[in-house]
Amino acid sequence: MLNKAGRDIPMNLPCLEGREVYQGEFALATNARRAGRPVRATRPGENKVVASIDEVIEKAGLKDGMSISFHHHFRNGDYVMKLVMERIHEKGIKDLTILSSSLAPCHEFLIDYIKDGTVTAIETSGLRDALGKFLSTNPGVLKRPVVIRSHGGRARAVSCGEAHIDVAFLGVPTCDPRGNATGMMGKAACGALGYAMVDAHFADKTVLITDNLVDYVYPYSIPQTDVDYVVEVEAIGDPAGIASGAIGITKNPVQLKIAELAAEFLDQADIIKEGFSFQLGAGGAPLAVAKFIGQKLKEKEVVGGFGVGGATGVLVGMLEDGLIKAIYDTQTFDTTAAASLHDNPNHIEMSASMYADPWTDCMTNYLDVVFLGATEVDVNFNVNCMTDSNGILMGASGGHSDTAAGAKVTVITCPLIRGRLPMIRENVQTVITPGTSVDVIVTERGLAINPNRQDLIEKFKDSNLPIYTIEELQKMAYDRVGKPQDVEVSDKDEDVVAIVEYRDGSIIDVVRKPLL
């Protein structure tokens, strides 16, 4: 069945029975209610602290066929998932669904647990490296295809019970015996716990795992009312893999040129003004755009409204310099931003639901502009940030489609050519964000404005910026490196390795096994 993004969805797959295909950004009406976790009475003197992960698995009642969740705030420094999965494996518990907000290279150990049947389903936002390649090239190794969700789509699915969590195992950098927890302090401090907050609130059982158990925690990200058990371990993560020092602005000349053009577009579009709101990624080019925004705010003597994060030290610098009034943070990327979240009351932590759940009053709906990256784009302005040039799962949906749908202007930044391959294709390999959500594509050679935005085209008709049609930019790339061959993928339905949900739960695309 062809969906609104022009993708052919094999609706005869058992896992898609009763599902709807993507029909447009806001086409699917809300018809769900929030899920509720079981109510459990507590008595004075009860102790939530459990001696070991082994014991807490028993107390939580984990059994074959259940769903367990983890968060990715520790990124590639995460120890928690491995600590938990080793003990689950030793107990012989099988047929588990992993509901992780994302998966990093450090989680490749899951391959062994998939092979032996401990894990039989995965629902996530991101897949990378060895695990992504294994799942891309081994259809049928799980009992159903991987489900890829955006951050907002995952929050929606969890909060309405579509993605049910039996037990959430959540690493927290600091916790007290009652279960109040924060990511703002401790040796594994990661800053915001926006994804964990959702899981803790809606899971049937919530287990917090910490390496810094203290008497009292305040302010807290996760309250004791959402927590059933607390376990103290020696270490929950590698600080070097969790957060770097302040992320620096790129020195790459191609990225700098992209940032320069993107920032100039922003200025000429009259977006930089009193109270405007924005989101920038943590990559080098977006941070260079942030520096330009700061300069323009100073020149105009105006103050921006708020920035949305993934927070970085660059964004924090704008807050401390009085260039913006607030930061709303669901995931913190560096140590400078983590310290700011702890110290500055105008640096505000928010859950993934508040960030991007399409069935709530989410912050993405208040963005004036968002800058996003891409693995590739196509002549219909569709964006792929999930599979690489050979069709392997290697990225993350993240908040890409969420912010693109909500922002008044969505700007995609990507090089015209990457690794001798043109980045503007006839059709992207995987649609994560539909072209109807994208307004401008910026490369180092020039910009293309979506024909749907005739208001912007009219505004820039006399601009000195290098503005082309998307087809003209594509031709520039083809003239330099040639037209690429399409990735060959299996046309067998049994070779579908992943289902890509749009943020409202409809199916926007599928990922098929590449014929390498």
Automatic annotation (TrEMBL):
<dbReference type="GO" id="GO:0008815">
    <property type="term" value="F:citrate (pro-3S)-lyase activity"/>
</dbReference>
<keyword id="KW-0808">Transferase</keyword>
<dbReference type="Pfam" id="PF04223">
    <property type="entry name" value="CitF"/>
</dbReference>
<dbReference type="InterPro" id="IPR037171">
    <property type="entry name" value="NagB/RpiA_transferase-like"/>
</dbReference>
<protein>
    <recommendedName>
        <fullName>Citrate lyase alpha chain</fullName>
        <ecNumber>2.8.3.10</ecNumber>
        <ecNumber>4.1.3.6</ecNumber>
    </recommendedName>
</protein>
<keyword id="KW-0963">Cytoplasm</keyword>
<dbReference type="GO" id="GO:0008814">
    <property type="term" value="F:citrate CoA-transferase activity"/>
</dbReference>
<dbReference type="InterPro" id="IPR006472">
    <property type="entry name" value="Citrate_lyase_asu"/>
</dbReference>
<keyword id="KW-0456">Lyase</keyword>
